[in-house]
Amino acid sequence: MKLELENLEQITNQVISSIEQGKNDIFEITEKARKEEETVKYQLASLSSEVSAVINEVDSTELKEKKARQRLMDVSRKFEEHSQENIQAAYETAHNLNIKLAGLRQKEQSLIEKRSELERRLVSIREMVKKAENLATHVSIAFDYLVNNLYSVSHQLANFQQAKNIGYKIIQAQEIERKRVAREIHDGPAQSLAKLTLAAELWEEEISTDSSKVRECLTDIKKESRSILTEIRRIIHQLRPMTIDDLGLVPTLRRFCEEFNENNNIQLEFICFGEGSKLDKNIEVTLYRIVQESVQNMLKHSQATRGVIKLQLSKKLTLNIRDNGKGFCPEEVLGDISAEKFGLLGMKERVNLAGGELNIKSSLGQGTLINVVIDKKQQGEEYHD
Q1: Of 2, 75, 158, 210, which sees the most CB atoms within 10 A?
Q2: pLDDT, tens digit, for every residue of 213-253?
Q3: Phi, psi of 258 (to 5 degrees)
Q4: Residue 220: how many CB atoms within 10 A of its CB?
């Protein structure tokens, strides 16, 4: 599954890269079209000015040519009044102006045709720019939508894989806990009961021959039985303290800290505000398990000398667990779902089920703060501890 996710991520990145390259190509085409539009607009403006100048010159030459023809007609009608030189000059002037006018009209027509061609080209370029801009907009929208969806799919698959791994680790953690309890029972009460049974058999033989030892044997049996009972109660208390059902969370945590301080070098301080508040049993168990797991981590990993558990019972339940230990990187630990690092993830899952939020602040050499906030109005999903 991990390999499939890596392949999917690689394909996703390739698709995104290709689309992004397409976006860049469209952008370059649009920019080139805009530059060409500006060039054509400049050429068209220059050509329009030239056409206007030629038209003015044509109009002026037409007037001159008309006057020259009129002059030639007058001279021709009254040729006897004019010399041959005047007649020749009038003819040449009219002829030259006629030739010039024909050239100007041809130039005017050519420039008008060229201007019309540039105008059509400008319209075409503007349409291309508009289409390119629309295409770029649609591609950007599609790109963003596709990227978000592709990443969403990848993220969902990754979450699915993580949930699957967490499921496996939950089962694994349950098996580890069962082995631990079985080992404690085997090494503690079971061994003691085996010794007691063996001792009872030996005492039975001695009692049959020496009745004076009956009281001594019974005293030893009672002493050993009490020891076994104490050990069994300790194991039961670790699994589910009876005081949490009978007395509630606060007395249970206070007793937990007292017993911890008696048996360990780390000194725990318990502070509670709003002690009289009533809590949902599931939330009480959740908070107790958070404390239990946090203190175990403190004992195993933190190298701390002091810890403070602060519980505030108001509209929002706030639980702070702080130590002065060596600290760690929460991101690395939360990203590792191996069995030995599963405790923090399990804590987060418990708080989520209770409708709350758990935050961990820690850095190397700065100790650790675990903060839990649960709204008393929130109803977490029902579960059994």
Answers
A1: 75
A2: 666 777 777 777 777 777 776 666 666 666 777 788 899 89
A3: -60, -45
A4: 15
